[in-house]
Amino acid sequence: MTVDLTIVIPAYNEERRLAPTLEAIRAYLDGPEARPGFPQWELIVVDDGSTDRTAEIAAAAAAADPRIQLLRGGRNRGKGHALRQGVLASYGRRVLVTDADLAAPIEELEALEKALADGHAAAVGSRARPGATIDVHQHRLRELLGRGGNFLIRTVAVPGIRDTQCGFKLFDGDRARAAFAASRLSGWGIDVEILHHFRRQGWPVAEVPVRWSHQEGSKVRPGDYVRVLAEVTSLKARSVRRVDLLVAALFVTFAAVLYSARWISPDHRYLPHALQDQNQWEWFFEVTAHNVRHLQNPLFTDLQGYPDGVNLMANTVMLGLSVPLAPVTWVLGPAVSLNLAMTLGLAATAFAWYWLIVRRLVRHRGAAALGAALAAFAPPMISHAHAHPNFIVLFMIPLIIDRALRLCEGTHVVRDGVVLGLFATYQIFLGEEPLLLAAMGMLLFTVAYAVVRRDVARAAWRPLARGIGIGLAVCLPLIAFPLWWQFFGPQSYKSVLHGDNAGNSPLALLSFSERSLAGDADTAASLSMNPTEQNAFYGWPLIALALLIVVWLWRRPAVRALACTAVAAAFLSLGPKFRIPRTDVVLSGPWALLSDKPLFESVIESRVAMVCAPALGMLVALAVGHLVARGAEGERRCGRPFRYAGLTAVALSLLPLVPLPLKAVDRTEVPAFIADGTWQRYVDTASGETLVPVPLPDPAYAEALHWQTTADLGFRLPGGYFNGPWGPDRVGIYGASPRNTSNLLRDVRNSGRSVRITDAWREAARVDLRYWKAGLLVLAPQPGDAALRTTVDDLLGQRAKWVDGVWIWDVHGGG
């Protein structure tokens, strides 16, 4: 038996409101004003364990009209359970679910039916859409709670539907019964679960403005909004595909294996290829946690580089991670925080690329995972994994790319523009240079795709431009002060110059990095600035594979745009000038057009080749997806041997790039003088005195930063390893502005030979020590320490004293 319309009413203790509702519905459907199309109807009241006369009233109505039915439950189990029982018992071509108070009048059925007649599978009555009429409002607090709850609900589960909880919804009958049969929630969250099911099945849902009036006696309590959100969150968690969880677990495992040598004992292991960067980054995490705990300015500190201090915003402190991880730093220390950030950040980056590839390019999960693995674990990423978390924690970049693509669709320009602005703001606090490189890559892809698909470009540029404008309007006020502080605040600088050899050699693009399975340390060292800047090294097999993929899939616009992006980024990474290998021919590179421009002048141009990693990963994902996902159709078109040959070629091209776990060595032990707190007897921190390591910490030797974090930042240091200004032009340099004494001690350390000290040197030392407010000089055992001790003895006119594993010079007269 089928009928034209089924109305399902869940009822719990509705003795005062149920009878008028039943009469109003019956009068409308049978009366002269009834909309044609529902000559045969049924009405199902589901009593959800009421303790009043609700069931009695429904039974009387059913006795008077056989089209009305009563379903009774033994106990109160919730609106979701009642609706499920009623819908599954229905026979209607259309199914209307409405609350017992009939807050949305039955006459609004006509507007919902029109939406279904236009091709939608469901029509949701809405109080939030333009055109809705609220005759009687709820209490303001309840209304605010409803709006806030709806915002969270649609953010988590059903974006785009403004009012999920309005109890007036019309469904296609068969699809409604399928959705409710698959539902599991028994509470108020059933509305969201059903709409989420429709979305996953691709069944279109319309949100229709209706007339609505608040009715006294509502069963919804303030705490129910929290329960609905909990149910929706649980629903969203259950809807995650198992294969996605497996991919995420694999990425976490890969990242953990990569850092396994440090996870053995984070506090006592050091990555030698990090040079001094691990000391610097641990200090960044420690000083941020210190500032958060003491409610101090997170953009500045004078704990290093005393007395001038350090502009933290002008350094890569990654406030977007170091602030949230402050509790971990307080409890477990900065070494664990840094290790956690780099391990989970790298895995999150891989999963974000995987999500983007699945969403935008390839539906096959295996192909997407392979492409994402190449994007996140490519040789340049592994190189930066030694020391630069800001270049491997890039999980926001795929999200920013996806939001820009949504803007091109022009569906929700304002919303997507706002989200894009918030995403960009957060990425700025993770790393500005990666955001700049990502913007360059996105621009290259956009230009290439616009050339290939001019029709798409013409349709997309207006919403994209408008959305970017909205994003800037959101982002700029949030970052205005931090950026002002970065570029104009204390210890700000203009630019950091990296010399003329910061570009890639063409050979670097074809060779293997040191930590790749096929890598060679000597070759990689000869083609890069240092182990942390091996920014290309994709290997000739992968380059050859990419060329074959581009030729094979050339007809696809995305392939052509990705190929152009990778080639352009590779050429830009060669720098303003590059030499053709095996010759003396030097050519100008395209980077010459950008090298002296603001922001770009501080970029290490070889890093632009990192843009190639996701581009190559997407090409590989497209190729594998094309080979695998088509199944039998693919075999008929290209043959089983070709498929196997293609997959074998991909495997052989990627195998040499498999990263090896990063090397780690035992860390230099912190002297007992520092670790045990003996230094506190010699340095009067209350009066502003500093502890001066010999030699002063600098980018070449920054072990004193580890001393400082071990001592919980108890003392200040002159010198240090950070970016700061130098000279009247405020040119950016690594480390503090040099002084006579710091230069002298550095030269002695580097040469291993003491120098003849003159009165001029002694006077310069007195001036420098006063400038630094030095209370104590400390020399730890190290290569060349004899020459350093002799030099300082002569410089200060006093003999060093051996205390708890270090030589000290008390320069304030205490001790």
Give a structural overview.
It contains 32 helices and 21 strands. The model has no long low-confidence stretch (mean pLDDT 90). By secondary structure, it is of the alpha/beta class. The protein is elongated and about 115 Å long. Strand 17 (723-726) and strand 18 (731-734) form a beta hairpin. Helices cover 50% and strands 11% of the residues. Strands 3-2-1-4-7-5-8 form a 7-stranded mixed beta sheet, with helices on both faces. A 4-stranded mixed beta sheet has the order 16-19-21-20.
Keywords:
alpha/beta, EC 2.4.1.117, four-stranded mixed β-sheet, 815 residues, DPG_synthase, seven-stranded mixed β-sheet
Classification by helices and strands: alpha/beta
Distance between the termini: 99 Å
Most strands sheet: 7 strands, mixed
Number of helical stretches of at least 4 residues: 32
Radius of gyration, in Å, reads 34 Å
Strand content: 5-15%
Give the number of DSSP strands: 21
Backbone shape: elongated
List unreliable stretches of 5+ residues. none
How helical, in percent, are the residues? Answer: 40-55%
Task: Provide mean pLDDT, rounded.
Answer: 90
Q: How are strands sequenced across the largest beta sheet?
A: 3-2-1-4-7-5-8
